[in-house]
Amino acid sequence: MAERGLLGLVRIDEGLVARERYGPLVDGVPLGEPVCSSMLALIGVEDDIRALRDNGGSFRLANMAVRSGGNEPPRVNLNITWDGSSGSYLLILSRVSIRDDRLTEMRQSARIRQLMETELLAKSAEISRTNADLMRANRDLDQFASIISHDLKAPLRALRFVARQLAEEIGDAVGDSVLDKLAAIHEQSGRMNAMLSDLLAYSRIGRKSEAMADVDTGKLVQRIVTSFGLPKSMRVDIAGHWPVTRTLEAPLDLVLRNLIDNAIKHHDKKRLRIKVTAADAGETCRFEVADDGPGIDPSYHEAIFEPFRKVEQEAKPESSGMGLALVKRTLEHLGGEIRIESDPGRRRGTSFHILWPKTPQPPNP
């Protein structure tokens, strides 16, 4: 067996220097040098080997590599004992069999799989805890937003009612300035009421589920335009190809309605024209809402999408400043895009370009 390279024998002196060797399996062990120089696995266990002289027994290492003349070092089992008759250590190497190799590999694979399963269970438990915390936080936030909206709206409604009632009761007994102030109270409280409603809607975007449905976008935009009840001096033209597609109807209604409403509210003339167009672009729909209003200075193109931000010199009571913020947040949640084209220094008008995904894909957190 030694001649076939299955076994090998090395005699080591008390200084752990190799003195004799037998068999090709140990050809890589140089004589006259410490055995640790060719068997690196023995480094650090020298004291354990020396203890065999006094305590007897043997020292064993399994499935280790030894230096040899071949391209790939063989894997061996190593056993060291003390031979009192010769006053030296006997190091016996036996080549690891294919069965041992497979057994070791199976044990390593089982250990790796066990570690992976343990890590997976830990991560799954962590995700479950995080999801539970998130659901609880969302419920608390919904409840908080609803309570705040309701509790703040109640005194505002009372304030509007008292202001209107007071104006009716005092009638001509006071001057116009007093009536103007009461009217201002009524208007500003109404504006605050609208702001609370829009803020509540803004906070709920992304935290409520929407059902997919077959939506005729042409009929949808027509219903939106009709609902405004515009006078003849205000015209909304619907053009382009409005597809029937399976998507989320409520968010699309919100986006188009707010953009058209924004163009109406912020127009500076009694006569206005708004053009709403659509195009089917495969996996997406492209919408454009363009008006012939005063335009928006490029320096405000980012600010207008922030909650409660306005760019007019005079704030309009009927506007809460949340319309475009709702539009942008809705599109971001569904994987869509919005961009603006407007430069009053060159020409009048503002155009909002919408990229609407037919299959909404909310972004990763």
How many β strands by DSSP?
Answer: 12
- The CATH architecture name of the largest domain reads 2-Layer Sandwich
Return the CATH topology of the largest domain. Heat Shock Protein 90
| SSE topology string | EEHHEEEHHEHEEHEEHEE
Oligomer: single chain
Q: How much beta, percentage-wise?
A: 15-25%
Radius of gyration: 41 Å
Low-confidence stretches: none
Please outline the helices and strands.
Blueprint: E1 7-12, E2 18-22, H1 46-50, H2 52-55, E3 58-65, E4 75-83, E5 88-95, H3 98-170, H4 176-204, E6 212-216, H5 217-227, E7 234-240, E8 244-248, H6 249-265, E9 272-281, E10 284-291, H7 323-334, E11 337-341, E12 350-357
Parallel strand pairs: 7-9
Antiparallel strand pairs: 1-2, 1-5, 3-4, 4-5, 6-8, 9-10, 10-12, 11-12
Helix pairs in contact: 3-4, 5-6, 6-7
Task: Describe the overall structure.
There is one protein chain. The protein has three domains: 7-96, PAS domain (Beta-Lactamase), CATH 3.30.450.20; 112-204; 212-357, 2-Layer Sandwich (Heat Shock Protein 90). The strands form three sheets. A five-stranded antiparallel sheet has the order 2-1-5-4-3, with helices on one face. Strands 7-9-10-12-11 form a five-stranded mixed sheet, with helices on one face. The chain has a two-stranded antiparallel ribbon with strand order 6-8. The protein has helices at 46-50, 52-55, 98-170, 176-204, 217-227, 249-265, 323-334, and strands at 7-12, 18-22, 58-65, 75-83, 88-95, 212-216, 234-240, 244-248, 272-281, 284-291, 337-341, 350-357. With 365 residues, the protein is of the alpha+beta class. 41% of the residues lie in helices and 23% in strands. Strand 1 and strand 2 (18-22) form a beta hairpin. The radius of gyration is 41 Å and the shape is elongated. Helix 3 (98-170) runs antiparallel to helix 4 (176-204). The protein starts with 6 loop residues before the first strand and ends in an 8-residue tail after the last strand.
